[in-house]
Queue: 4 jobs
Job 1
Amino acid sequence: MHAIVPSRLIERKRDGAALSSGEWQAIIQGYVAETIPDYQMAALAMAVVFQGMAEEELAALTEAMLASGKRLDLTGIGKPVVDKHSIGGVGDKTSLLLAPMLAATGLAVPMISGRGLGHTGGTLDKLEAIPGMRTDLSLEEAVAQLRTLGVVMMGQTPEIVPADKRLYALRDVTGTVESIPLISASIMSKKLAEGLDALVLDIKTGSGAFITDPEQSLTLAKTMIAIGESHHCHTVALLTAMDRPLGHACGNALETEEAIMGLSGSGPSDLMEVTYALGVEMLIAAGAERDRPTAQHRLEQVVESGAAKTMLATLIDAQGGAAGVVEDPSLLPRAPRAVPYLAHRGGVVAEIAPRTIGHAIVELGGGRRTTEDEIDPSVGFVLTAKPGDSVHEGQTLGTIHAQDEEGVRIGVAALDEAITILDAGQATPLVTHRVTLEGVERLQC
Ligand code: URA
């Protein structure tokens, strides 16, 4: 291993130099082996936040992080291996639809997801709303399930990119999450460990996303695509709107129920538009389809025939969950109070602020304030009104799901703040840009 003096490397990075591949390997190895302490790693991460990283340097960091753990070995699986990753949002349950849909088309989907972070929800929390559902599969269990079923939905194991497990927790408490190179290395090292042929990134943009500026979103997309492609993983990104919650349901069990509705052919139109857009990209990126209309038709068929819903039931059963929820969503936990929220005035819904909704879910108990918090999967909102809808005074805009009167009060206050009704307004487009190694395609303005 490269002999390094961490304090010298921190100084060099602070002053704008690019560290070499050997130096990054030594840093990551030292950090995992605990010979480099958290305080030095935090200082180095902060230097990266301010100085950024050259492309080769970022490739070296990603490679070193990937090498810190094991990868899924799917050799001989005989089907394209594909995944999608979303950069966090509110009401975003597309993973719960896409994993079974793509598996039902015959692709392998090793989906390793995260928990809710800040105001955003996480796929693992939504899955764990299903009674008995396990997401803590070992690497061996995951590979075995992928070979028999073609799909797994699970959390990061201790063997997959252990460097990121430590570094992400450190960044979370040292103000070093918001860095395009650090986010890119963190996400892409975990995705590349899945042994993917293709990856589709859903880069959420707008007031409810971690990245609010579309230019920054494009830079993040291009950075992650460059990493993926250099590792022979065909990577494509869509920029999608997160200036409003996606779909109607926000909150873990409510979102799982809405995903099941989507697989049953009755999902809200905005959720289905984003889901199909991402699914089409997954099929094409994996080389399973050549053109959009055919790919869309194939996905619609697995929904209409019930094959995607059956795949979800089989997946839930394989991971110890109550597969009956797929036919009877009332088996999901339900909050005792479900109270309608009415429009204060007539007009057009101009805004539903996703961040306010996300923070309110945390306050209702549906998200974590500390990593140790237990969450209440039953609470949240179902917001049937969407930006651009004309509404009249007293119309029901949605429902607050809470444990008690205090929860209802929190919910009402949040919706008073989040929902703006004006005399006029219109919804912005949902899927705005498609980014590949070749460049950026503007889809809707
Ligand atoms: N999600 C991750 O896994 N890593 C980041 O750095 C940010 C979001």
Job 2
Amino acid sequence: MKEKIISVRLFEFDSEDELSSSESNLLNHAKKACTNAYAPYSQFRVGAALLLENGEVITGSNQENTSYPNGICAERVAIFTAKNKYPDIAIKSIAITANTNNFEIEEPISPCGACRQVIAETESRQHKEIKIIMKGNKGPVLLTNGIKNLLPLMFHEEKLKK
Ligand code: THU
């Protein structure tokens, strides 16, 4: 037996003022997208914004349902919307944020496991990593280059082809 240590690389910014103008612009789109969330059950409104290689920004918000598992996260709404409209245009970055009236969200919002898997497959489909920018409604910004940093040992579809 040998121990294996996997390291990941994330950057933490005390404030969004430290981001590039393109990054903070994308985060602002994600904040606006929270307004379109349908979250009567969790009251947790999540917004995601994607910057595509053609310069277009596509947004998504979480959409819940009274049959809870039918709801879908903001990230997947945004990614599937982008891939429906522009199947062959790569996604460069995704910004994710959230708000609720019930408490302050001081930790960056990082995508759930299912969304990480969808981001992973999107990267392998486009042969390009996606920059991920995460923020709560307060507090620091977390940034990482590529889903490998959030989903080490990820499941690749090539494993199905053997
Ligand atoms: N949610 C997202 O939209 N994205 C995330 O990264 C975390 C969770 C949604 C799902 C559900 O509508 C609500 O937030 C509470 O979990």
Job 3
Amino acid sequence: MNLTVTGTVGIDTVFTPDGEHREGILGGSSIYFAAAASFFSPVGIVAAVGDDFPDEFRGQIAHFGAIDTAGLETRAGSKTFRWGGKYLADMDHRETLFTELNVVIEEPPSVPAAYANCPVVFLANMHPGVQHRLAGQFTKRRLMVADTMDLWINTARAELEVMLGEVDGLVLNYDEAEQFTGHRNTVTAGKHLLEFGLRFVVIKKGEHGAILVHRDGLAALPAFPSERVVDPTGAGDSFAGGMMGSIAAALARGGKGAEDPGSFESLRRAMAHGTVVASFTIEQFSLGRLRQLTKQELEVRSHQYMHMLRLE
Ligand code: AMP
């Protein structure tokens, strides 16, 4: 396996400002990540669900042929992670209505033997104590990156700080970077986070793009300007999926960035892929848009995006 993601697989309820809502849809940090990454590289999921996880959702995951679910554990007697959120009018900010952790705070899922040599690993949003215990099982990794969010910064900060010492990079939202560091300035917050032993931090700013604060430099990438934003859930995880998926693919084919997948240039290029695939995720609820997305559509938008970045 070239790329593995650990994180939540959940059942979401989402309210959007135009009065629309969806109850009981497929979600979870590792699900959005894997769906986005699958456009670039085979990807394995390591996560646990309860025996209430609908079979229909397994079919939705199987639709993405490049997702391997050998590490998706179904635990008898446990309940699946559930999350509900409501977006504010700007579609960039949201309020969490409920989080039912359930299986997420039980014993971590097992990492299949076939994934242990995986070179690129993403610890998607999850309890940092569990992220840390899973991290140690990938002994041959060349790049390991984590994500986190407000709930964990508030409730498990000490474990989060320990986990940061284990990974190469961190991806998080601007609000969370501020909450964690106390700095409103993105670059100052990023530099503060590097002090935990990280090589780089990617700070996501929703429709304003993402900033890379790397020990070897600074970069800013705009979001793809979208007119159709239906449900922003999973944008961050899909961004990370596109980013890490493209790095895993470059590594597997010995392409650009293969010699050092965590280098400044490798990440900057990969962030562009993450930006483009995330711009599709938000066009429908759940994985609706990614299920219909073709590689050709992705390529066309990537060209448009690269063209927009060019200054002549
Ligand atoms: P994003 O919009 O990229 O931040 O990710 C949204 C997904 O994260 C949803 O599908 C949720 O199921 C999942 N999620 C929400 N809260 C948490 C949490 N505290 N830990 C892990 N996953 C979460």
Job 4
Amino acid sequence: MIAHVHVDAPVITIDRPFDYEVPEQFEALIEPGMRVSVPFGSRRLLGIVVGTSDGTRDGLKPLEALLDEESSLTDELLALSIHVKETTLCFRSSALLAMLPAALKVSYDKEIKEGHVPDGVRLGTHLSEYPKEVQSVILGLAKKGELILAPVLKEKKTVKTDVVVELLDATVVPKRAKKQLEAVDLLKETPRMYWSALRQIGLTRPQLQKLADLGAVRLTEVELNRDPYATIEQVEESVQLNDSQASAVLAIQEAEAGETLLVHGVTGSGKTEVYLESIGQVIDEGKQAILLVPEISLTPMMVKRFKRRFGDRVAVLHSALSKGEKYDEWRKIKRNEVDVVVGARSAIFAPLDRLGLIILDEEHETTYKQEENPRYHARDVAIWRARYHGCPVVLGSATPSLESYARAQKGVYRYLHLKERYGGEMPPVHIIDMRRELAKGNTTMFSEELFQGILDRIEKKEQCVILLNRRGFTTFVMCRDCGEGMTCPHCAVNLTYHQYGDRLKCHYCGYEVGMPSTCPSCNSKKIKQFGSGTQKIETELLNRIPEARIIRMDQDTTSRKGSHEQLLRRFEEGEADILLGTQMIAKGLDFPNVTLVGVLAADATLGMPDFRATERTFQLVTQVAGRAGRGKLPGEAFVQTYNPDHYVIETASEHDYETFFAKEMGLRQVGNHPPYWFLTLVTFSAKNPLVAKAEAELFASDFLQAHVENSRLNGPMPAPLSKLKNAYRYQVFIKTKQPDTLYAELARLQQARAKAISKKEYQMSIDVNPYVFM
Ligand code: ADP
Ligand code: ZN
Ligand code: ZN
């Protein structure tokens, strides 16, 4: 017997199945989709069996071991990997591995746990301790269910505790203790900090203990990474759907096999109720559902509603779970012990085999696209799987992506509209012209109206959400004397300032240095952070309203796993008046007591060099304004901008998606942008800039010679991020109306370069339907 095996080596020259002899003792056990260990050159690699055939051939090496008792990937997922390869131009092995939980991407051993063991085999030992023949006997028994094997991961045990450090008395710290004083200074700003954050400044554990012994701080050990939903109980709730919700549910129920439906529902229209009801029906029919959310830690309330409704029948693939815990969830799914899988992007590969419905909530979010190989979009995978299972796909959003709305208009997707809020009005949105504030002499971050609004809510014990739109500009450092910025030595980008430890970091390659006290080029002391951060705003608010209770959510306060949920829970429980944060607070929050939303620098994202900048800004403003007035109390939103007449700001303030869409589509047509054309970005990078440029030029000329129908090429040109991790980068853009023809041609051009690429002379990366143009 011969096994066809894809090996885990992301090199284009070996992106094809290799044949191995199947030793006799494995013949009855081996199945496509199983993980195996195979000799490859001098190495031993993880491989996935994609097929078997009878007979044998001279010179075949035998495969070494089976790593699964049953296949890890279903026939469906094996077929899907070919589709992912063809439409994203990745290696099939990367597609296959993307479908497995992290724990299965390494080879692992097995513990012989319980059951009948053959002579000479002891419980509690590991499979690898026995000779090959004995191993296959053990695997055979396990397959028959007479023996239970438990995988033992080669995983470092994840730390599950942390220590909360609380400042008690700063004055008892001796002057000589530099590190301790530094820590105490940080604690003066943030009186409760985690040890994991404090150690970033170089404070050691004995130094921390010393502080506690002196009585300067109190230490409390806390547990981390617990299942955040463990305590939620299932409750029988019956909601009465309104007419538009009921007709959406009916349309989903009666959808044709493989049909895609776009549920366009304004914020608070009850899309989640529609999902819950539709999934309930699917379960009643004995089928299963997948619900995708953009980012699971930012949608705790949504997940809670699912847990409450479906209890143990829901598997939540949460990012805060350890590898092992995720693997446990995955195995429950694989054994078909759950009816609903809730998770972010990669949950689309959940190995369910009675799929009856797939839902993508907030379908416009770009987190559904993976930005590394395989560069798949969860929506495309969802549509493929739905066709395979003959079930519908539901795309839900208050601000659909232009691509999806255009498809709905053309009748490719079925369009369902929830025009009104459930039991309420859309909040009025006030546009505030910040130029006028400036003319009035107001140089603070808050307009008079917004500030009064906040005061008023604090008095009434209602809550506020304040968004600082700061994607695109981070806190960077520049010398005020010579103008020199601090840039990464390996990448052509500014370093970002981090408060913890007073350090500068490169967000692309991880390089970091301490914040210098003088300018490295002119020695001036006037080296300073620029850019307006949430921290600065928090300070400004506290100076003006000392009694305000503020929860700040940004990169600094949410770097630890589980911290998102914790901050949101505190806000939900009324522990703060104001939730202040970056983009991450714009999504999916449903707090009934929030009656005011403020958007600072609404237009900050408009100027970004990306044809989707307008669409992103529209989505952001609409979504965050939609957080106001979701309960019984009416809400309102204030949008501060220097571009009050911009069509994005105007249409977003009027909750007018249709006008925005019409205007934007006109611009996309003129600019030859998606959705009128399918876009592909090809990037060449090499340590030698001349090589990168020459390869990009050669590619462009080869492409033009191929005369791909209905396609155009732009470039090559240097990438905006012209140097990354010491490699120089050039880009080529290709637009097409015939994606399948284009992808086939690109695969050919990629294959022709396989040798040079595997020798690492340069790299070529293909991004189909890109969202990031750096
Ligand atoms: P969306 O997902 O569209 O933003 P939600 O499903 O979160 O909207 O609904 C907004 C609020 O209205 C929620 O608090 C929800 O419980 C409530 N709601 C929506 N539909 C109903 C209904 N049919 N019956 C009772 N409450 C509803
Ligand atoms: Zn200088
Ligand atoms: Zn860098």
